[in-house]
Amino acid sequence: MDVVKSPIAIRSSSLLEDSHYQPFAGIYNTYMIPYLDDKYEMLRMLSDAIKGVYASVYFRDSKAYMQATSNVIDQEKMAVVLQEAVGNQYGDRYYPSMSGVARSLNYYPIGEEQVEEGVVNLALGLGKYIVDGGLTLRFSPYHPTKVLQTSEMEIALKETQTSFYALDLKNIGQNLSEKDGFNLLKLHIKDAEKDGSLRYLVSTYDPHDMIIRDGLYPGGRKLITFANILQHDVFPLAPILQMVLKYSW
């Protein structure tokens, strides 16, 4: 707490989660706490969150999943990881410009995509939106300019992200909930537009000309397409992901 001056994510790192033979990620709770000047209050929140992560092993959903995958609690071993939360503060909320989940194998390749090239799901805001099954942008890091969801205007209007999660910096967790999202805010894309966080992330739909323009323009609906990053290389995300997936086997 003396080193990190930003919110902290408290998450599990267990034997079953690291298994190569079965999916177990996201089963246990992950908590996020805001940075506070009051170190004792922040320590209290951190302590409660660590207890909450360990306790989540015994939650009904965790035990049901463990039983369904033919595992037993006695075989599980867990450590708790503290991670600095990447993002920016906008008033009383905190979130990153983008978060994502990358998979080394793409089991459902489209067009020129190959299984071994992997696949990525990208979203604005905290990664909980992706883990919870939110509407994300799916693409191959080897074919970043070919995104099915943005290939046609009608698809882009229906199949792009409309909401996102942010950490509520005002909620200091006086009563830690068994629900790890108790201090997260679910916001609309318009809220991010007011924060000024959409500059390189969106395309703008012009209803008068019936066209989608890459970039942030006045008026019109903002679509989370990451076009400036994937199409125009404002940030080398695709090459970075290629390297990560190549060496993460």
UniProtKB/TrEMBL annotation:
This is Pyruvate phosphate dikinase AMP/ATP-binding domain-containing protein. GO terms for molecular function: ATP binding; kinase activity. PANTHER family: PHOSPHOENOLPYRUVATE SYNTHASE-RELATED, PPDK_N DOMAIN-CONTAINING PROTEIN. Residues 6-151 form the Pyruvate phosphate dikinase AMP/ATP-binding domain. SUPFAM superfamilies: Glutathione synthetase ATP-binding domain-like. Pfam families: PPDK_N. Coiled coil: none annotated.
